[in-house]
Write a structure and sequence with these properties.
The complex is a heterodimer of chains A (159) and B (387). Chain A is α+β, with helices and mostly antiparallel strands. Chain A has helices at residues 2-10, 16-22, 27-39, 77-84, 111-122, 154-157, and strands at 60-68, 89-94, 102-108, 128-135, 141-142, 145-146. Chain B contains 14 helices and twelve strands. The interface between A and B is medium-sized, with 18 and 22 residues.
Chain lengths: 159, 387
């Protein structure tokens, strides 16, 4: 029932009853399926998608590129694990093709805080041979959702 | 000038669409959650849009032949064969029209003469009666009931036929009820018609949007091909409403007459849209499957929401509407919808906009995202609790 996953990914607030109706299942079957996904680590959480720009919260995000020397046995996994443990790191990807290896999204209260984090925690690691920091100026779209003022439904207007 | 006196009596007396009336009430309100539209929320699939862009780049900006490009007519006929097992000749039995609406207009104007009666099952789309009236014909409304799952029955049809009956309009899958006709229903209707001279205009614009059952065309029933005009189009199936592309399929004798009207009134359907439509039929089967799947999930969700909030609801099996029964609240359809709009900020269309037989019902469209639907049903639930 991967369809349930797609439905929840799009709308995490769908109730078991609503999912049951959409998929011709009983509520009990939905509850069991979702629990199984949660236990297997397929569903990892139900966070809200928030446009923080519309709030007073002051914070900064940056995309960081890291050039890394892979370890002989574990490749990039060991260093990626270490970097993942920093709470400042919101996402971490191993990427192909580019002139760097790891791509991170890092969050901090100020640009200075992120700059220090990169210099002191990341650049200082033995395996890290280079960094590049790109501060995020504005978020237009995240997790498939377009930020800003929602478009008016033009279909309603001109009929 | 006294325009009322000068202008065509028939047109002056024609009532504007009841859907239109409701949209006008909405136009100056920003805070309303609408469930009113009769068109897909999907954007036309990219490969179809791309075909149109390429046609513009290549400068394909001329008229096509009156009946449309032979390529598109060929695709339409292959599609009808592939999906519904119906054989039509692209050269003599197919006209590409400006949307399904023009197809309906052509069929009525080519067949209906002053004094002819046209049987129109209701509730149904708003255009049939006025077009018949313009042609001088007499609309004869037959009310399909919730008890009969909003299907037209053979008995109802038989009772409505007189010696003046020229045509039966068959609008299934149905807007606004979501009703469909199945093989057995069609066969019974065919039996009533096959030894008469009555023509059938089968409006199959929602044919691709059926859930759990494949659409069947009346033209595939014994003795019916020769008397049936199929009016259909790309708007609903391929999310191409703004392209204005539809078609007629009918025996050559009827097609030739309709083509003359189309020639003089329209010339040809837009060339760019025709090229896009050909791409849609060549490579669009997967798009249809995807969109239909999404509509089906929403249909089930919305039905469940409405029923659990205490709105009795016939299970629609086609199109993208549900048609709940609101009669137990002791309000007319108009009153119910107006109060829902004013007190809950949710817009739906009163069943009465779709002709006699719509009183006691309202049309809710699910051509919206799940998020949008649930925002609306939450407000409806609160409204009903207070009612």
């Amino acid at each position: 029932m991967e369809r349930i996953l797609s439905q929840l990914e799009e709308n995490g607030r769908l109730s078991a009853g609503q999912l049951a109706a959409m998929n011709d299942m009983s509520e009990a079957e939905v509850v069991a399926a979702v629990r199984e996904y949660e236990q297997a680590g397929v569903i990892l959480g139900y966070p809200a998608l928030i446009d923080w720009d519309k709030t007073d919260k002051e914070f900064v995000q940056a995309i960081i590129e890291l050039k890394v020397t892979p370890a002989p046995d574990t490749g990039f996994d060991a260093v990626a694990q270490t970097i993942s443990d920093f709470p400042q790191v919101k996402s971490l990807y191993l990427t192909s093709g580019a002139s760097y290896d790891l791509s991170l999204v890092v969050e901090g209260k100020t640009m200075r805080e992120i700059a220090f984090f990169v210099a002191q925690k990341l650049a200082s690691m033995d395996t890290v041979t280079g960094t590049a920091t790109h501060f995020i100026m504005k978020k237009y779209k995240d997790k498939g959702v377009i930020f800003g003022t929602p478009d008016e439904d033009e279909r309603e207007r001109d009929i | 000038m006294d325009y009322q006196k000068i202008l065509s009596r028939k047109v002056v007396e024609m009532k504007p669409s009841g859907i239109r009336k409701f949209f006008d009430m909405l136009s100056d309100r920003k805070d309303v959650i609408g469930l009113t539209v009769g068109q897909p929320d999907f954007v036309t699939p990219w490969h179809i849009r791309d075909a149109a862009i390429r046609s513009i780049e290549k400068g394909k900006t001329y008229y096509t032949s009156n009946s449309g490009t032979l390529e598109l007519r060929g695709e339409i006929c292959r599609y009808m064969q592939r999906r519904y097992g119906l054989a039509y000749d692209p050269a003599r039995e197919t006209i590409v029209t400006v949307g399904g609406s023009e197809a309906i207009d052509l069929a009525v104007r080519a067949c209906v003469a002053p004094g002819d009666e046209v049987i129109i099952p209701v509730p149904s789309f708003v255009c049939y009666g006025p077009i018949v009236t313009l042609a001088g014909g007499e609309p004869v409304y037959v009310e399909c009931t919730e008890q009969n799952r909003f299907r037209l029955t053979a008995d109802q049809l038989r009772a409505a036929i007189t010696d003046k009956t020229k045509m039966l309009i068959l609008p299934f899958p149905n807007n606004p009820t979501g009703a469909i006709l199945e093989q057995d229903d069609l066969r019974e209707i065919a039996k009533v018609l096959w030894d008469t001279d009555i023509l059938v205009l089968s409006d199959e614009i929602y044919a691709e949007l059926t859930y759990g059952r494949e659409h069947r065309s009346i033209a595939s029933m014994p003795g019916m091909w020769e008397r049936t005009i199929i009016a259909s189009g790309f708007s609903k199936a391929y999310a191409m409403t703004g392209w204005r592309i539809g078609y007629t399929l009918s025996p050559p004798e009827i097609t030739a007459q309709m083509l003359k009207i189309h020639q003089y009134a329209i010339m040809c359907a837009p060339t760019i849209s025709q090229l896009a439509a050909a791409e849609a039929m060549k490579n669009g089967d997967e798009d249809i499957a995807y969109m239909t799947g999404q509509y089906d999930q929403r249909r089930k969700l919305l039905l469940n929401e409405l029923r659990t909030m205490g709105l009795p609801c016939f299970e629609p099996q086609g199109a993208f509407y549900v048609f709940p029964n609101i009669s137990k609240f002791g309000l007319s359809s108009d009153e119910f919808c107006e109060r829902l709009l004013n007190e809950a900020g949710v817009a739906i269309i009163p069943g009465t906009a779709f002709g006699p037989g719509g009183e006691g019902f309202a049309r809710i469209s699910y051509a919206y995202s799940v998020k949008h639907l649930l925002a609306a049903t939450e407000k409806m639930r609160e409204f009903l609790q207070k009612l």
